[in-house]
Amino acid sequence: MIDKLIENIRKTGAPIVVGLDPMLSYVPEYIRERAFGEYGETLDGAAEAILQFNIGIIDATADLIPAVKPQVAMYEQFGVPGMVAFQKTVEYAKSKGLVVIGDVKRGDIGSTSEAYATAHLGRVQVGNVSLKVFDEDIVTVNPYLGSDGVKPFLKVCAAEGKGIFILVKTSNPSSGEFQDRLVDGRPLYELVGEKVAEWGSDLIGESGYSEVGCVVGATYPEMGKVLRKIMPKSYILVPGYGAQGGTAKDLLPYFNEDGLGAIVNSSRGIIAAWKKDEKIVAENGAGYADAARAAVVAMREDIAGIF
Amino acid sequence: MIDKLIENIRKTGAPIVVGLDPMLSYVPEYIRERAFGEYGETLDGAAEAILQFNIGIIDATADLIPAVKPQVAMYEQFGVPGMVAFQKTVEYAKSKGLVVIGDVKRGDIGSTSEAYATAHLGRVQVGNVSLKVFDEDIVTVNPYLGSDGVKPFLKVCAAEGKGIFILVKTSNPSSGEFQDRLVDGRPLYELVGEKVAEWGSDLIGESGYSEVGCVVGATYPEMGKVLRKIMPKSYILVPGYGAQGGTAKDLLPYFNEDGLGAIVNSSRGIIAAWKKDEKIVAENGAGYADAARAAVVAMREDIAGIF
Q1: What is the CA radius of gyration of chain A?
Q2: What are the chain B neighbours of A83 within 8 Å (beta carbons)?
Q3: Is B11 one of the catalytic residues?
Q4: Is the pTM of this model over 0.90?
Q5: ipTM for this prediction
Q6: C-beta atoms of B126 and A42 within 8 A
Q7: Residue B279: its pLDDT value, please?
Q8: Residues of chain B contacting residue A87, judged by C-beta atoms under 8 Å apart
């Protein structure tokens, strides 16, 4: 899957992933009203609203971007109907040729980790039948439980040609509470980075990059520089650009000299761009998808400027 | 919720939680056949099988135990129908007076962590309506992202009278890869433990225990002893008893002198007990729930023997 991601990045010239993290407050009123009109102010109504919102965003941006990253929490909060919307979002994005990174941050051990890998990347056996489930292309994984938690994902990645991005250094202010603590004089996130390189070493694609990538926040470029060297074959998924304070010039250390190696996420900055765009967008929010497209173009140019 | 958990523990005399982690291979053939007969070898069929299996276990054990712990991964692997089975399992267990600990190990930041807390413990706002979602009583939380990830859960716990158990030291062999690394001469899990005590300090129930508990594996009793002192007011959820190798005598350090402070999980040891019990169980698995009940009684006696 890493090869397909890189192919998509090359084709679009945009190392960008759009975070599909739709809060109801990001969904224009006319979409919410239509959904609530059909299903009431229910979980079904909310799920329909975010699905229709996503479809608009995907339609408006799919030719410009290599990938989307739905954040499952935003769907899970609407219960079972929300998970239906998640599944339909994944399917719809894949039908448009996008790589889908499920931002699920799952992590457990043994058979439980296997079940998560099955749910999001693999196939589950039911009687004599083997069934795909949510079937994202890549998912994010939490490393706190160590190799026991990660290995079942590696197995599914090998079998299905899928990928994972492991949390190494997250973009939030309190990420340092544990991740930065010094172990033998080096921060914990470096040790996690070394493990990422090790876990990924048997899953190198034709591109030379591994199916095992990592997450390193844009808000810590100095750390990004060190981690880039520790995991030269791992793609870095970089959150924190835009709304969280990371700027384009902070991004350079995350890339390798081949201009590859990093993909930058923006969620709010794209999908809620319409709230700050009075030129394209009507008062009821119509035109929100055009505003998202314009925000992607601006982000692409912003990032191109650093090379 | 911690007060209700303690009340249930006192009432039953059993500091035991039954892990509802149903693999299809744990479900007796006659239940699978009935479910597949109705829904086919589909995700719906699998979900129906595990739901009916769970109902049998709950009916057979609810008077003996304070709580159940469904492991969401085992439901998520059956997709949307699996999440329906998860929700119905939570509802059914609550209807029997059990405290439901959702073993979800979620962890993210800011609004995403809020969404997870909403999904599992809180209420989501849809238009003018505030709706409960999966509505467990307590959930497990991953601490790798620091306070930013935990605080949204604390807010929901305070508003809804719910609880969380934060992963401190997990029961698996590779848990030491990161959790045991020494920071200023002390293992990382101790620092996490100190944070747990801090996060829980404003959420103390009438029992004197906090809504913020922790997870410490039964497989590390020496570490349990130290952590018990670091977090005197936190309940410890102890996995790893039985199938993972922890024995009853290993459990004493996890309890306080009041005989409270810990609740021991067993999953396979209870729900798959029928596979080793040829006296009660028929060849097709009928009697599996009686075998689970017998395993709970044996576990209760085993643990009572340590005091």
Answers
A1: 19
A2: 79-80, 83
A3: no
A4: yes
A5: 0.96
A6: yes
A7: 83
A8: 79-80
